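Pasting two entries for a bug report.
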Amino acid sequence: MDNHVISPAEKKQSLQRQMGLLGVIAMGVGNTIGSGLFFIPQNLAAASTPLASLIAFVVSAFGCIIVAFSFANLSQKMPLSGGTIVYVKKAEGSFAAFLVGWYNWFAGPSSIAGLVVGMVAYLGVFFPVLLVNNVAALIVCLILYWFIVLINIRGVKSASAFNIITTVVKVIPIILFVLIAATKFDFANLTTVNPAMVQDGASQFATIPAGLAVTMWCFMGFDTIAQSAGVVKDPEKNIKRGTILSILFVTIVYVLVIFIAYGVMDQEMLAGTSAPFSEILQYCTGSNVWSYVMSIFIMFSIYGCASGTLLAAAQFSYGMGEQKIFPPIFAKLHPKYNTPITALIIEGIFGSLLIIANYTKGLAGAYLFIILVSTMSTIICFIATVLSDIMLLRDMGGKVTPWRYIKKCALPLLAFVYLLYAIYGTGYESVMWGFLFLLLGLPVYAYMRYKYPQSIVKSGEAAADEDVH
């Protein structure tokens, strides 16, 4: 039994609720609109057909919205840092909470690594050596990653302000893209099909799962609001409002961008681009100037997304350490800035190792591998959150019957079905790596059981009870 008494100094040194509704929306939008938006026209054209990819996108948008409702409902009742682990520990026990936390911890730095790699790919528009020299690209990726870590160590206000600035900045390339590309819009391009996708008479609808995997990555990030609940002002109101508003805004942006991109280039040409936003504008204007301008704004946008994602990932790790699901060192705060410095440094080290391990594949290969594995890990956490919504917030009201259960839990059950289909869409390789990573976490859980035999089961549950009831 852990009988440690918290000193007045430790009580004073706690996470500060400094983020208002604007900061919450900026985090949701900024963390969601990252590299996915600026690569999705090419990714979808290469993996699917116009009709199938639009269907996949609509399914992903709707699925993520109903998943977001589960996050919003749970965070409204339990506004604590840690997000998913707090819900899962209360609903499903410490072992399930550890596995979800293990997956979510992995998804955080891997997502940031993917974002940084994507930004350096656009930086290659100005410095082509980054596209052919893997060592140079590796060095730039690591420098950018650790600059993000330093920003977040300096405090929530600094990171939140940076997120707001970069969220505003990322609106600029979207507006430029829409205004310029719309002048070359041709409805005939919407009916074109990439020949590689319909070989041997295959139905274009067979490509929906592949399109779903790509679009799912584009929506990753809305859950980071719930993970940072411990630093949000008036969390009971701002978390739910911020989550819903941010995901609705992102959905509108994605639909508009994809529709216009499909109307400017035929599918085969679009599938052959490497920096689609920049190349589409070059195609429309016949000049490199807009391509360069677009690349600058996109790099700032992706970088801001990476910063916000690290902020949320560190808050999540802090919650894991605070609950003693991870070693308590993860909950250590900076003496001056009151930020989870140890969690931030560990996230930085792990993300750096992930980039180093994949740098020989080149930017494109590393980016694809990282985002697929990250998406797979995040989906597992989403499934656990949806199940927690069912177990904690749905009152069956007496005798439980299949019909009553389905009626009371319709939305989270629908979200569950969507997430299962999304896992299928990520492909067998991502599922395999996800399973291997799960097994890797089992010895860590066993260590924590020996180290804190009571705390890993009991820690945090009283707080969760208080917030639920």
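Entry 2 (this is the one that rendered wrong in the viewer):
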Amino acid sequence: MDAESFQEPGTAQGEGGVSSARAEGGVAMDLIILVRHGQSVENALGAGLGPGSHGDALTDLGRRQAVSCGGWLRSLGLGRLTLHTSPARRARETARLLGLGVPETVSPALSERSWGRWFEGVSDRDSPDRLAEARRAAGRDPWDWRPEEGESLRDVRARVTAWLSERQGRGAVVGVTHGEALLAARAAVEVRWRAWPLPLPGGGSTHSPPNGAALLYPWTPGLAPTRRGFLPDPMAADGAWDSVRWQEREPGPGRESSGEPARGRLTGETFP
């Protein structure tokens, strides 16, 4: 899915976006951190997005990614923190390996997109072709194409948006989730931005974070986020906040003091 098709044109902040419900007056900033689970066996095999015929466990690399991400999270000194995870085994295993020292809450809203019967009866050999067919269909109708008995991206955005809205006013929140769910989360949080891809180390970019990576969204009272942090590879992180690549929306002319985020390009890298 390309950058132009990622954002749904004409979406208003109250129609799928997320705004902070926190009161003004010296209240600490909220921080939502969304972590993609570590590499699973299915990921390593390059299998499709089916029901997990190869097992839903993490690989050795996936476990190292989760442990590294947890070490990085602990180095941030976030204080009060809550942890949520998708019900999938690969996500729950990642959440446990983060080692954050807080109980985890299983949140179905963070589940991967349901592909319904799309991969039913498809062999490993044919799975990549079936996946490519799904991508073509989604490219023609990115928001509303729905596999039989599955979910559209709009469906996923609706449940992820509800989860994000409920997290407002709760300090630092970590959610362990999946690739398509993260794509939907970006659509909810970055609703007033163009869908600029996430920069990868060494060049290149992606719309959905790699396994073990994290997205960070600081919230100020009454506004949707205007900054996005990205940790593409926790195994290469070399120091707390300094490892985060920050991108900030540049407001349009005359919109700097507006209570409503404006469309604009993401520029620069700053630190909190």
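Dev reply: Rendering is fixed now. As a check, the viewer should reflect this: The radius of gyration is 18 Å.
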